[in-house]
Amino acid sequence: MNIFARITATLTGKLDEMVAHVENHDAVVALALKDTRAATAKAKVRLERVHKDGEAMRKRLQEAMRMERLWENRAKETAAKDEQKALACIARRNQCREQATQLQTALTRHEELEIKIRENVQRMEQRLRDIAQQQNLMRSRQSTADAMRIISKIEGATDNGIEDTFDRWEMLITETEYSLGHMSDADTLDMSFVKAENTAQLQAELSELLDSDKGE
Questions:
Q1: Which one is predicted more confidently, 4 or 130?
Q2: Cα separation of 152 and 155, whole Å?
Q3: What's 3-161's CATH class?
Q4: What residue spans define the domains of the chain?
Q5: DSSP code string of 81-145
Q6: How high does pLDDT run on average in the chain?
């Protein structure tokens, strides 16, 4: 197995191991988010029911207070004409008053409970947002860390780093191009100048040779 195959196999194995490790963490967080969302949804449904119960209780309280005033007015209206009826109206008023008092006490406790439940739901929703945000942050950090780790391993794969590998790769490609007779435009231009320069040099030497012969 050559050096590149060994490096590839090593990096692939390490990457698979890291990915599996990350996926386990991500799966745990995802499951926690799913459970928290389900619990929050149930809490919100129950909160809505509590709120509706409170609204119904307020309506009963308002009705009890209305009936209390009604029986009191009836007692006043009938007191001069029929004392027994007026007393019966007072008794009904007292019943309505007692009912209103009980409802007011129950409503106060109910409102306190509703406030606590609403606060808990709001905390759960905020926690959901925090967990989701943290999950995204950790995913980004993990992706960056994995990329940097892989780059570090690639650069450390040879003594001179990845640049040495690219240099040797380029040399191999260039050698292949030369062996196939494929040269760049820059190489062709350079050779044309070299050929002209060589020709001029040869011509100069020939002229010098002929001049020397004439002198003899």
A1: 130
A2: 5
A3: mainly alpha
A4: 3-161
A5: T-HHHHHHHHHHHHHHHHHHHHHHHHHHHHHHHHHHHHHHHHHHHHHHHHHHHHHHHHHHHHHHH
A6: 81
First to last CA, the chain: 72
Average pLDDT (31-53) is 91
Distance in angstroms (rounded) separating the CA atoms of residues 183 and 180:
9
Encoding tokens for residue 55? 């609204």
Q: How far is CA 216 from CA 203, 206, 208, 210, in A?
A: 20, 16, 13, 10
Type of residue numbered 4: F
At which residue do the structure tokens 């040269």 appear?
183
- C-alpha to C-alpha distance for 41 and 121, rounded to whole angstroms: 9
Pick the residue with more confidence: 93 or 4? 93
> What are 118-171's pLDDT values in tens digits?
999 999 999 889 988 988 888 888 888 888 888 777 666 655 566 777 788 888
Residue whose structure tokens are 């040399």: 171
The radius of gyration computed from the CA coordinates of the chain, to the nearest angstrom, equals: 47
C-beta neighbour count of 105 within 10 angstroms: 10
Q: Which long-range contacts (CB under 8 A, 24 or more apart) does 45-52 make?
A: 46/117, 47/114, 47/117, 47/118, 47/121, 50/110, 50/113, 50/114, 50/117, 51/114
Side-chain-facing half-sphere of 168: CA atoms under 13 Å: 8
59: Cα within 13 Å, side-chain hemisphere: 6
Residue 166 CA to residue 152 CA, distance in Å, equals: 16
